[in-house]
Specification:
By secondary structure, the chain is mostly helical. It is built from five helices and two strands; from the N terminus they run αββαααα. It has a two-stranded antiparallel sheet.
């Protein structure tokens, strides 16, 4: 049961990240391009949400899920897990707050755009909560095992005279 909770949280993080990849990608495609020779870029909060989604799927979740299973113990450091969770939680917090603040500055709404922006903010907030939960779990795990090393677990060989 103890190992099931982090795995379920990671699965939800991946599911929400895939959903957010579609929504943030659509928002970037709608808000960037060119019009009669003038090019325009998507607003920074929308681009940051797309970056955070890509960061979540590829470096963060790929390492956090696969490292404990396939990497040697020296490359699978618990402090790296804690830092990756904390950085990703910080990215999600900054992303959904920035997008909500950017959206709150606009008094108009065009088509599905506003609904997708709101849904992106809500899913971003859920991702932040999920990564905050896994950051707490990683911190507790690190604190519980930080004095233990593989060398300390093995008893020293002694000879009986």
């Amino acid at each position: 049961m103890h190992d099931l909770i982090p795995l379920v949280l990671r699965a939800l993080q991946l599911l929400f990240a895939i959903i957010l990849l579609g929504m943030a990608g659509w928002l970037v495609s709608i808000t960037s391009g060119s019009y009669f020779g003038y090019s325009y870029n998507s607003p920074s909060p929308i681009s940051f949400m797309l970056f955070t989604t890509i960061w979540t799927i590829f470096p963060a979740l790929t390492y956090l899920v696969l490292a404990p299973r396939f990497l040697p113990l020296s490359a699978n450091n618990k402090i790296i897990h804690l830092v990756m969770d904390a950085i990703t939680a910080l990215f999600w917090f900054a992303g959904f707050i920035a997008l909500a603040a950017w959206y709150g500055d606009h008094d108009y709404c065009l088509g599905n755009f506003c609904g997708v922006v709101v849904a992106t903010c809500v899913f971003g907030a859920f991702e932040w909560l999920l990564f905050t939960a896994t950051t707490v779990l990683s911190a507790l795990d690190w604190n519980r095992t930080r004095g233990n090393s593989s060398a300390a677990k093995t008893a020293p060989e002694t000879t009986v005279v």
